TrEMBL record:
Residues 1-21 are annotated as: Disordered. Residues 67-141 form the STAS domain. InterPro entries: MlaB-like_STAS, STAS_dom, STAS_dom_sf. This is Anti-sigma factor antagonist. It comes from Bailinhaonella thermotolerans. It holds the Pfam family STAS_2.
Length: 165
């Protein structure tokens, strides 16, 4: 497919574009609202979803619409990570904003999820905006040649213009 970033002969693939409706579970590949370590709260107009497996913590908030990621994305949680981001992309209108300032480690599977989600958002005439991406994450995206993926923008803080990769 033209425009799909490639690294080592592989296209970015992940759970981001395959996410089912609602928030995903990791059991048996089924996608359900129930999952270990999650909390779903409704506060007026604000929806808060928090997932914490001791290694990865992801929070979705509606006011402002944002996903915040802390910890490690690796083989053990990458499918769930992609499913959460894909769900967030369908929940909100406008750009999908993900604060990755608390991300300590991400493997190539996690990078594929981000690149695939950026392409999905681009097809919707939106962007995947990664806030506070570390030099480590920027370096990995550049090494994989996914830093220029259509729909992917890097920004230093909310409201800042996109930063160079």
């Amino acid at each position: 497919m033209p425009g799909v970033p490639e690294a080592h002969g592989r296209s970015p693939r992940g759970a981001a574009g395959d996410a089912g409706e609602g928030i995903c579970s990791r059991r048996g590949g089924a996608r359900r609202l129930r999952s270990p370590g999650h909390t779903l709260l409704a506060r007026g107009k604000t929806m808060v979803f928090s997932y914490d497996d001791g290694q990865l913590r992801v929070t979705l908030t509606d006011d402002p619409p944002r996903v915040t990621v802390y910890g490690t994305v690796d083989l053990s949680n990458v499918a769930f990570f992609g499913c959460l981001l894909g769900t967030a992309g369908r929940l909100w209108a406008g750009d999908l904003v993900v604060d990755v300032g608390g991300l300590e480690f991400i493997d190539v599977g996690g990078l594929r999820v981000l690149a695939a989600l950026a392409l999905t958002e681009h097809a919707r005439d939106r962007r995947l905006v990664l806030l506070r991406a570390s030099p480590y994450l920027r370096h990995l995206l550049t090494m994989a040649d996914w830093h220029a993926t259509p729909g992917l923008e890097l920004a230093d803080a909310p409201g800042d213009p996109p930063a160079p990769p």
